[in-house]
Amino acid sequence: MSGLIVTPSVGRRAARRAGDWVPAAVVFVLAIVVWEGAISAFHIQQFLLPRPSDIVSTFWTNRHTLWPAGWTTFKEALGGFAFGSLGGVLVATVVGRFRVVGNALMPIAIAANAVPIIAFAPIANAWFNPLSSTSKMAIAGVLCFLPVMVNTMRGLQSADPRQIELMRSYAASELEIWRRVRVPTALPYLFTALKVASVLAMIGAIVAEYFGGAFNALGVLIRSDAQILDFQTAWAGILVASLLGLALYGAVVLAERLVVRWTPATREA
């Protein structure tokens, strides 16, 4: 009897989730059709904008070169994402707990992230070996740091004062209040920042590779193909970067659904 009650509910949730993707899928297909048709209708040159069909064909033909290059760049982005996000969480915790230290660190953190990443990339390559992945991780980490730090700090400071007072009335320590009240409140804010950082990490790694990197890195391949006017392969490289960025974003979304189960968004998902 219970199966008859649960199964339709599960089916409705699955149908709702599928329905949420329909508008995006329709827009995506429509954009590809318009893109393909506009090139034929307006006789757009291939070096300006290749056909989507040609990009996909090149993507498949050169997959043995593009995917290893993409994996190299993805590891750099993943390392920068991990270090930048961890640093953002640690600094946010210190800033939220010790106001004096926070007042000293906040201007430095904001100033560091105000520097255009395209200006910082050559400097990072000079600090580290340009052919190593360390400089690329540093660039990706800098991009990830500020959104994670700001959102985490906001989440830690958004705890309900009544819950904190209740915990103190039970003689709970500050560590217990932090673990049982502040951290659960901050988790939705943290995962929102991690979703933003997951996209920024891939961008940072590719931008850093434009100023020097291993020959099998995706950013280097895209730059080299564009310089020799092989724009179909360059766009195929961009497609690989987009797919890998979406994969990292999807992993963060999955982790959010597994960890943050008490919010309305994750309960309905």
Summarize this structure as a short list of keywords or feature phrases.
globular, MetI-like fold, 269 residues, 0% strand, 11 helices
Describe this protein's structure.
- The chain is mainly alpha-helical.
- It folds into two domains: 1-44; 54-268, MetI-like fold (Orthogonal Bundle), CATH 1.10.3720.
- Helices cover 84% and strands 0% of the residues.
- The chain has helices at residues 2-42, 52-61, 63-97, 99-114, 117-127, 134-156, 161-169, 174-209, 218-227, 231-259, 264-268.
- Mean pLDDT is 83; it is low at 1-7.
Question: Which secondary structure elements does this structure contain, and how are they paired or packed?
Answer:
Blueprint: H1 2-42, H2 52-61, H3 63-97, H4 99-114, H5 117-127, H6 134-156, H7 161-169, H8 174-209, H9 218-227, H10 231-259, H11 264-268
Helix share bin: over 70%
The secondary-structure element order is HHHHHHHHHHH
Secondary-structure class: mainly alpha
- Could you give me the name of the CATH homologous superfamily of the largest domain? MetI-like
- Characterize the biggest β-sheet: none
| Total count of strands | 0
Taking pLDDT < 50 over at least 5 consecutive residues as the criterion, the unreliable ranges are 1-7
Summarize the structure.
The protein is an all-alpha fold and 269 residues long. The chain has eleven helices and no strands.
